[in-house]
Amino acid sequence: MQPYLSIAVRPEHIEVRAGNAGEGIPAVVRNVEFRGPFYRLSLQMLHSGAGGLVSVDVPAQASGELPLAKDARVLLNVLAEKLLSFQAEALAN
């Protein structure tokens, strides 16, 4: 078995900014779900080999600063101090 590292981050620990230029991971909004005190955005990261999807929680009071429409372009920043990592072993086929 080969060891590997898994990294996780909670949706509320990912920052989202409007736009598609500048520092951050470019992404496209695929779905917006209102959940009362926050919106849960489903985002597709661009330029990732697997076309990775992530969920991000945005406080409702900050929603006016972001494009909350399908296909809008945004930038993601992961708060490094909030990353969770764990080592595991891959199952041999």
Automatic annotation (TrEMBL):
GO terms for cellular component: ATP-binding cassette (ABC) transporter complex. One of its GO terms (molecular function) is transmembrane transporter activity. Residues 7-84 form the Transport-associated OB type domain. InterPro entries: Mo/tungstate-bd_C_term_dom (IPR008995), Transp-assoc_OB_typ2 (IPR013611). It comes from Paenibacillus tianmuensis. This is TOBE domain-containing protein.
